[in-house]
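During the first year of the project, the team set up a workflow for recording each protein of interest as an amino acid sequence followed immediately by a discrete structure-token representation. This format lets reviewers and collaborators read both layers of information side by side without switching files. As required by the reporting guidelines, we include two representative entries from the current panel. The first entry is reproduced here exactly as it appears in our internal archive.
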Amino acid sequence: MARKKLIAGNWKMNKTAVEAEVLAKELVAAVGKITERDIMIAPTFTSLAAVSAVIKGTSIKLGAQNMSSEDSGAFTGEISADMLIGAGVSHVILGHSERRSIFKEDDTFINKKVKKALAKNLVPVLCVGETLAEREAGKADSIVGDQVVKGYAGIPEADAKRVVVAYEPVWAIGTGKTATPADADAMHKHIRDVLAKTYSSTFAEAAIILYGGSMNDKNADELLNMPNIDGGLIGGAALKAESFARIINYTKK
């Protein structure tokens, strides 16, 4: 079956609200009318309102970079699903490798966030991926498969259909290194196989799985034409309208 590509931009801790508004306007001019591919951008929390106003009425969807597993309360520095929804957010990135490594978020905690996002009708973008040491030790498949299983734990198939997976080899994030298209596709196929065992082959075939390891305007064509890669979670290349638009408008072979 043909799966619709999703090109997502993770702006990370970059761009003030003013700068984010400028970039959003550039993206609206460049790709705001595209409908054959889904487009999502995830600015910082402080830029959500400004960017939401700019992209309103366009085909670009608004994402957030993280979310609390709680609804409200004494959780200083956190942001809830309802707050994100109020700012116009439809997607939320969860379990990014930087959240796992720097902020020590584990699979159980990430799973709790995925469930909360689904309960609030947000689209969770569940990030999974192995470190260089894990890959060199031959553990990549087992590590990533385990993250997928634990990320989906306790989620019924009807709800799980709304989850997007982003495979991001940790060693290729922000380093300029990328997995070869064949290696990246092989891991995407492995994730699909894990989902087939967890739910069903029909479920796995329909699942959207993104690649998130230093995809840019130079390597996007080759990566996005692989059979199991359904889009990208773009970091640095999403911070410039020209390069992000080029990825969105990749050449289909």
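The second entry, processed by the same pipeline in the following quarter, appears below.
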Amino acid sequence: MDFRVLDLVATVVECCKERCPPGPGHPPAETIRVLATLRRFLREGTPWRSLTASAGEASGSTLRRRLEVRARGGVLARVHALLVAMLRGDPTLILDSCSVRAKRAGELTGPNPTDRGKKGTKYHVAVTGDGVPVACAATAANVNDTVVFERLFLSAFAVMARIATVFADKGYDAEHHRELCRSFGAELHIHKRRQPSGSGLGKRRWPVERSNAWVLENKRLALRYDRLGFIVQSLLQTACVLLVARKLAQEL
């Protein structure tokens, strides 16, 4: 299954990346080798210096260079969108976020109000009703969820066939969010602020909490060491891409 997932993602990456004329010097590492390295780096939290080139994997410097190029060209976002479009998705959209500590600070970090003000990063994820992540974003831990709602919703709407219902907790409660959903024909269910708990939305929001748990199984995301924002966003996007690809590989 792991080989099928990597092969599927590598095929889509080859379709999405920009074609560059071959130049002098050593030929570039194969996409499948770079993806295998990225998966191990993401899951095991392997230090950059420990990533050495081998028959099946690329070096740490090659991985870092590829991540920068793909972040600049938006390749991972396009790969994510294509894989989601290939799925028979549920028309329900569910949003949530989770925060992690940033050991070395850096970009996209801020004081985490749920962790005694320690420097942290927040991962925002939007999933379908069956738990497929369709949009994601990394921000500082002190960024309010309402700021990211529109970005996640529009990103999800661009790749889903339709959005019938949106579920979110009271962190996303804002009237302009309801207006946005109504303008796209979606029904929004958000627990309102300053209302007693027990809204009943918890039984509908469990798919996004499960997906957040799957994302945090990746050691490189569960505890942030990288200082550069594009690396953190790329790692989060890669984790979501692998989840979508695994779901798609099961259906093929």
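For the second entry, the following points were noted during internal review. The chain has a mean pLDDT of 89. The longest strand covers residues 92-101. Both points are flagged for discussion at the upcoming steering committee meeting.
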